[in-house]
Recover the amino acids of this structure.
């Protein structure tokens, strides 16, 4: 916790901000303020208006109601540049570094120090170096940004923000892609920044982080503020209740499932990196999933979890070897269509990149993997598609005006449900879920958990990769832990403790 | 953009699109269609304005049956190319070689007539196979070898023209088979035109009535009497007007009939088949398409092959209309076809575009050509205007979308 800044003037004050989009009141009379040296958390379900509020502050949305004061002066940002000049820096959830440029070039992109129109490389890199070491980062600023891990890229983004002399730093889901170790490093840095008087707006779905870091928390719901309170006066259930507008008794579905016969058996799967010969990203992994079972795959980032699922689904670009049995019969899966034909569905990690055709309707997305069957082999029939998709649309409670709503306009949770619906419509027997609740708010998470539970109970075999340990421990019947492409641990639900799983994931121990 | 009073022909597209839009079930958003409808309105309005301007400038020579017949005949070649081109563009690819391919396929068809004394069917097949093989080859290089299609077909633009020049030794050869020539020059007699018109009218009535029955069966509100009548009267009026206008000159030109059939097939393939749906998915998000089990490479190759085949059809019509095959035949046609697609709302980034839009775009480009030629506008000015309009059309679209 940082020093109490109450006697200082406000760094930022947003007064009764309102914003409407065609047909939607995105923000309605939201007030928000920030003291120097404070971390103020902003939480709320997806679609609650957090990103709209941030985008107004960032100068992305230039038309809004209400007033914004920076250090007591009324400001109306006409552009992102405007906002930056006033000392606001936003690190958005999607990293925006140019992978082919060096770290230094990225930090000073568009503001390169020049002399007679020529870039002063020495100066650029020495200044970049200084910024990075301020953040405690020992990194050559000449490294290409694309070669860095997500965690380091995040820090480079923050360095970029600081290079603007930012006084107000906005972080949108900064730990979504970080390992625990990386996240800890980030927290230390954030606290240091606070000591220098920088105010931080921290947007996150991870409430435990919010409680650890911030001094105050503001909850948004349906475009309105439902309260700003010091974290000392809040606890997690209360915040969640405020966010969803109802009491969430339990995040994970209660009751035990009873796994039935084996459905998917995997033996000695090994996957070789496409670019680095002999580098095994998945190394001799074997496991079995039963009907009615949820198998969790835990591990740190880069442990080979996603690659394992990709290998089994036929979408891994490198060489894959090993055996896959479905219902006891060996099958050959060389490409996604083989996997799909054997009843496997894959909800990928990045639904925007590989899950959805964003500019098309929910209906077109839901039917994409099973078009010949639900619509017609040679002719499509939209009415049949509607008839087939409607029950899923209703059962999964996809919140959208209709099946014709464009997928790209949905919130993260609803997009995830559309991807799920795609596989359910295809009558998948085995479901691969890769970080199924990433970037999804608590209310929608709970729904996704219940859906997963329902599906398992109905006889599906579910394999779920997740970086959120509580999720793995709360939802899965068994947990497989990967470390550097190998299985380092396997636990039943009762034996799996956070400590045991983590020590296997970090390779300190193999069970 | 409301209350458009548009000259007969162009309204057809509009009504059809509106009808399709209405087939979305009650109580659902029409958002999926609103974009394309707005687009169709804009296109039709632009076409109507263009025709009005030319009608005034040419003291209505532009809209006389004779010129209308000419215009539609010219539009057949660009239109057929655009139908194929839009499929390739929807998958986020491009084909710059179709103009040269038109030259090559036309030359091949005529050369076998001249040198081998082949008849109608063999010479037609020669053209079609040439187009199909070249299209499939370029599709294979793009989809399987993964050379960017811009490069593959830029190479094709040069190479196929070179082949055409080589096999003809740079000479122009007259078409030998008279049946072949009639594919570009003949007209249906008025009675046949009327019979086809009757069949088209019957088809419209049947489709509308059937759709209405489907709505009932799927527990949606059927259209009222007025809606039903309007849905029939508009397209029927357009079809009748179109055929009578052409009959007032010499009848429905054969190439126009071929174009209409191909355009209808194109609309059908893109809207009513899994293949069409996959094209949009591949262009919209190739990764998502891949993870949905769609074979990207086969579909991209097929799109190129279809375009190659259609380029051969266009080549036959073009050669037949001109009456001879020259080494420079079809030069720059690729630009007209690409422009037609883009003006018709296709996005070069893929995932967006319609056959109907491309056909309207083709009509627009050809109307420009035709009208400016009537006014004896010098060639170089025609080029400047066409280039400017292409950029402006996309510019307006981009600006309009930004405002949304």
């Amino acid at each position: 916790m940082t020093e109490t800044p109450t006697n200082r003037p406000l760094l930022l004050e947003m007064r009764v901000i309102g914003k409407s989009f065609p047909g939607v009141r995105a923000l309605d009379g939201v007030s928000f303020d920030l003291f120097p040296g404070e971390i103020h958390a902003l939480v709320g379900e997806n679609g609650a208006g957090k990103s709209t509020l941030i985008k107004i502050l960032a100068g992305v949305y230039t038309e809004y109601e209400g007033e914004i004061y920076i250090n007591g002066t009324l400001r109306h940002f006409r552009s992102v540049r405007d906002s930056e000049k006033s000392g606001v820096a936003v690190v958005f959830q999607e990293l925006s570094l140019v992978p082919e440029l060096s770290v230094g070039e990225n930090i000073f992109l568009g503001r390169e120090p020049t002399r007679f129109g020529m870039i002063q490389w020495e100066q650029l890199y020495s200044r970049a170096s200084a910024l990075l070491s301020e953040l405690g980062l020992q990194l050559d600023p000449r490294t290409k940004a694309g070669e860095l891990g997500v965690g380091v890229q995040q820090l480079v983004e923050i360095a970029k923000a600081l290079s603007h002399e930012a006084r107000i730093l906005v972080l949108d889901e900064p730990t979504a892609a970080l390992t625990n170790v990386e996240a800890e490093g980030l927290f230390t840095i954030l606290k240091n920044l606070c000591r220098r008087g920088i105010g931080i707006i921290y947007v996150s779905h991870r409430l435990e982080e919010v409680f650890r870091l911030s001094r105050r928390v503001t909850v948004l719901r349906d475009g309105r503020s439902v309260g700003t309170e010091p974290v000392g006066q809040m606890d997690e259930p209360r915040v969640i209740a405020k966010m969803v507008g109802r009491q969430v008794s339990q995040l994970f579905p209660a009751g035990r499932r009873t796994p039935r016969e084996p459905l998917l058996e995997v033996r000695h799967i090994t996957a070789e990196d496409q670019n680095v010969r002999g580098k095994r990203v998945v190394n001799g992994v074997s496991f079995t999933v039963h009907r009615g079972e949820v198998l969790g795959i835990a591990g740190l980032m880069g442990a080979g979890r996603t690659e394992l699922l990709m290998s089994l689904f036929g979408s891994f670009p490198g060489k894959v070897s090993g055996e896959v049995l479905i219902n006891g019969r060996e099958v050959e899966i060389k490409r996604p269509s083989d996997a799909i034909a054997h009843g496997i569905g894959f909800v990928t990690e990045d639904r925007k990149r590989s899950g959805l055709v964003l500019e098309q309707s929910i209906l077109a997305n839901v039917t994409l993997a099973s078009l010949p069957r639900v619509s017609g082999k040679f002719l499509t029939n939209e009415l049949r598609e509607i008839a087939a998709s409607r029950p899923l649309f209703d059962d999964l409670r996809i919140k959208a005006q209709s099946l014709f709503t464009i997928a790209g306009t949905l919130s993260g949770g609803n997009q995830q449900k559309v991807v799920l619906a795609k596989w359910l419509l295809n009558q998948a027997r085995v479901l691969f879920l890769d970080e199924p609740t990433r970037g999804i708010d608590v209310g929608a998470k709970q729904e996704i958990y219940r859906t997963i539970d329902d599906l398992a109970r109905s006889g599906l075999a579910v394999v779920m990769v997740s970086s959120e340990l509580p999720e793995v421990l709360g939802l899965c019947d068994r947990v497989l832990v990967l470390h550097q492409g190998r299985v380092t641990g396997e636990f039943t639900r009762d034996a799996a403790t956070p400590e045991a799983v983590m020590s296997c994931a970090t390779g300190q121990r193999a069970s | 953009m409301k209350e458009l009073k548009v000259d007969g022909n162009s309204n057809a597209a509009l009504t059809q699109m509106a009808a399709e839009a209405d087939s979305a079930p009650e109580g659902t958003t029409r958002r999926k269609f609103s974009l394309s409808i707005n687009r169709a309105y804009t296109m039709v309005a632009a076409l109507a304005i263009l025709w009005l301007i030319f009608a005034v400038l040419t003291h209505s020579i532009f809209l006389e049956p004779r010129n209308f017949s000419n215009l539609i005949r010219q539009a057949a070649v660009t239109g057929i190319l655009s139908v194929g081109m839009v499929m390739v563009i929807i998958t986020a690819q491009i084909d710059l070689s179709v103009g040269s391919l038109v030259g090559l396929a036309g030359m091949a068809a005529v050369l076998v007539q001249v040198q081998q004394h082949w008849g109608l069917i063999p010479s037609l097949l020669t053209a079609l196979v040439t187009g199909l093989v070249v299209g499939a080859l370029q599709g294979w290089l793009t989809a399987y070898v993964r050379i960017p299609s811009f490069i593959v077909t830029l190479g094709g633009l040069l190479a196929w023209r070179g082949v055409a020049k080589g096999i003809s030794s740079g000479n122009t050869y007259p078409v030998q088979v008279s049946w072949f020539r009639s594919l570009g020059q003949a007209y249906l007699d008025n009675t046949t035109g009327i019979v086809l018109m009757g069949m088209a009218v019957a088809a419209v009535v049947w489709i509308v009535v059937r759709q209405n029955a489907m709505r009932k069966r799927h527990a949606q509100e059927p259209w009222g009497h007025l809606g039903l009548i309007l849905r029939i009267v508009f397209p029927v009026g357009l079809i009748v007007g179109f055929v009578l206008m052409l009959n007032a000159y010499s009848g429905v030109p054969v190439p126009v009939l071929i174009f209409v059939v191909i355009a209808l097939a194109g609309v059908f393939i893109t809207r009513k088949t899994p293949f069409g749906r996959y094209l949009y998915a591949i262009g919209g998000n190739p990764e998502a398409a891949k993870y949905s089990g769609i074979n990207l490479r086969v579909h991209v190759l097929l799109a190129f092959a279809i375009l190659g085949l259609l380029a051969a059809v266009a080549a036959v019509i073009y050669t037949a209309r001109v009456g001879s095959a020259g080494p420079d035949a079809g030069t720059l046609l690729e630009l007209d076809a690409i422009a037609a697609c883009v003006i018709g709302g296709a996005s070069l980034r893929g995932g967006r575009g319609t056959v109907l839009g491309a056909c309207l775009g083709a009509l627009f480009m050809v109307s420009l050509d035709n009208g400016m030629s009537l006014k004896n506008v010098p060639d170089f000015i025609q080029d400047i205007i066409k280039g400017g309009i292409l950029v402006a059309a996309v510019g307006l679209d981009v600006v309009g979308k930004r405002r949304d």
